From TrEMBL:
Protein's UniProt name: Dihydrolipoyllysine-residue succinyltransferase component of 2-oxoglutarate dehydrogenase complex
Organism from which the protein derives: Sedimentitalea xiamensis
Stretches assigned to the Peripheral subunit-binding (PSBD) domain: 205-242
Keyword Transferase carried by entry: yes
Keyword Acyltransferase in annotation: yes
Pfam families: 2-oxoacid_dh (PF00198), Biotin_lipoyl (PF00364), E3_binding (PF02817)
Gene name per UniProt: odhB
Cofactor(s) the protein needs: (R)-lipoate
Keyword terms of this UniProt record: Acyltransferase, Lipoyl, Transferase, Tricarboxylic acid cycle
UniProt-listed Gene3D superfamilies: 2.40.50.100, Chloramphenicol acetyltransferase-like domain, E3-binding domain
EC number(s) recorded for this UniProt protein: 2.3.1.61
Molecular function GO labels: dihydrolipoyllysine-residue succinyltransferase activity
Function: E2 component of the 2-oxoglutarate dehydrogenase (OGDH) complex which catalyzes the second step in the conversion of 2-oxoglutarate to succinyl-CoA and CO(2).
Region Disordered, residue ranges: 80-100, 183-231, 245-266
Length: 497
């Protein structure tokens, strides 16, 4: 009897995911709720627990594959089940013997339609002792990075695919000897060349072949531009640096982009984009390509809001245990304006317009890994204190990387506060499928004409980006004016004016 492992619910508007990592391989014993694999969507990472105890019989969706909701990922057989295991996994479950107690290290399953990979990093060198399942090297494909564990314990006696090499799906990467009986003596480890200066934090390990080539050529690490993962120096990089040094004039760096002088290239650093950054880039470009995006601007005099906040902030914090900021005022003002201009709070679904009779407010938050937008649900029915508490909690969870997928979905409108970074004016990009986003900016004292006199007032520029397919210019301007009126006279919020 077998139990199916299927893709869990991914959340509202998320229809597919990519299988990023399998933590188990066919033949492994698993317990209930033990993590089997990890899926990546365009928003968050989802862990898939085991629905039953038993043995992982087979993997249907390999790493790198794109799967839909409820798609079959794998099958779990009961421990005592006599059902024969699939023939396709025989090689993966049993290491290939190379003779004399040696075991070949083979390229693991790369996923559907992936036929080759590049060896990016070896974590072990020839002569090192390794234990079973210890990480030996890392491969990079056009979809994901794949770690290669040791198929057996022993000594790494040979590396047949060095860093930078491109290998196919059935290639041999190296050989482990002495796994079975310890009869094979460890190969003498080659003497390492003098360590080259490390870059950055000092934890980037250059390719051993590159170190040897630098030592033979008599050049230092800072004379070579690394094109490997995280800026690692590969053997080809050293060859290019040596060739450039032999030229009478500085030669451009030999990389597929606009020519860069060698002296500039030596000061550059190349870092691979994270999956989150790639997703952010894709979604922002998709937003530009899909929506008829337009931005309208206005400015707001923050005098009354600042005076009200200064007057009550101590009493507010003492009673509610949270500081009174500006975000609750903007949230309230936007909720008020969205009632009058509901199309800004709507979305397009095919040929239909879906109007939302509630406000799930997205609040953009910058984190060390990128921009995320946690959602405060039913913000239109919350008090100032409830909004401030929710914003503080979501911001803290965002910075700690602990937001769940559900906390970042379902937003109907978004606030983006670039003013905290000093932005004076910018045009925010829509967060699909939403039709509106309000950009807040820096509060700056400026001379204003008030009742025929020039006075200094704390002013803020506001920018509303909207989808012109559903929101007309009149509606966008009206929305922004209502937000401005509510902030310049906060009493209007109490009177529902």
């Amino acid at each position: 009897m077998t139990t199916e492992v299927r893709v869990p619910t991914l959340g509202e508007s998320v229809t597919e995911a990519t299988v990023a990592t399998w933590f188990k391989k066919p033949g492994d014993i698993v317990a209930v709720d033990e993590m089997l694999c990890e899926l990546e969507t365009d928003k968050v990472t989802v862990e898939v627990p085991s629905p039953a105890a038993g043995k992982l019989a087979d993997i249907v969706a390999a790493e790198g594959e794109t799967v839909g909701v409820d798609a079959l990922l794998a099958n779990i057989a009961e421990t005592g089940d006599a059902t024969p295991e699939p023939a396709a996994r025989t090689e993966e479950a049993r290491p290939a013997k190379a003779g004399n107690g040696a075991v070949d290290i083979m390229v693991p399953t790369l996923g559907e339609s992936v036929t080759e990979a590049t060896v990016s990093t070896w974590f072990k060198a020839v002569g090192d002792s390794v234990s079973q399942d210890e990480m030996l090297c890392e491969l990079e494909t056009d979809k994901v990075s794949v770690e290669v564990p040791a198929p057996a314990a022993g000594v790494l006696t040979e590396i047949t695919a060095p860093e930078g090499a491109t290998v196919d799906a059935s290639a041999r990467l190296g050989v482990i000897a002495g796994a079975a009986d310890g009869a094979v003596e460890p190969a003498p480890r080659p003497e390492a060349p003098a360590a080259a200066p490390a870059r950055g934090t000092g934890d980037i390990e250059d390719a051993p072949s590159a170190k040897k080539a630098m030592a033979e050529a008599g050049i230092s690490r800072d004379q070579v531009t690394g094109t490997g993962r995280d800026g690692r120096v590969m053997k080809d990089d050293v060859a290019r640096a040596v060739a450039a040094a032999a030229q009478p004039a500085p030669a451009p760096a030999s990389i597929p982009r606009a020519p860069v002088p060698a002296d500039d290239a030596a000061r550059e650093e190349r870092v691979k984009m994270t999956r989150l950054r790639q997703t952010i880039a894709k979604r922002l470009k998709d937003s530009q390509n899909t929506a008829a995006m337009l931005t309208t601007y206005n400015e707001v005099d923050m005098t009354e809001v600042m005076a009200l906040r200064n007057r009550y902030k101590d009493e507010f914090e003492k009673k509610h245990g949270v500081r009174l900021g500006f975000m609750s005022f903007f949230t309230k003002a936007c909720c008020h304006a969205l009632k009058e201009v509901p199309e800004v709070n709507a979305e397009i679904d095919g040929t239909d317009i879906v109007y939302k009779n509630f406000v799930h407010m997205g609040v953009a938050a910058g984190t060390p890994t990128g921009l995320v937008v946690p959602v405060i649900r039913d913000a239109d029915s919350m008090s100032f204190a409830e909004i401030e508490k929710a914003i503080a909690e979501k911001g803290r969870r965002a910075r700690d990387g602990k937001l769940s997928m559900a906390e970042m979905q379902g937003g109907t409108f978004t606030l983006s506060n670039g003013g905290v970074y000093g932005s004076l004016m910018s045009s925010p990009i829509l967060n699909p499928p939403q039709s509106g986003i309000l950009g807040m900016h820096k509060i700056q004292d400026r001379p204003m004409a008030i009742n025929g006199e020039v006075v200094i007032r704390p002013m803020m520029y506001l920018a509303l980006s909207y989808d012109h397919r559903i929101v007309d210019g009149k509606g966008a301007v009206t929305f922004l004016v209502r937000v401005k009126e509510a902030l310049e006279d906060p009493r209007r919020l109490l009177m529902d004016l």
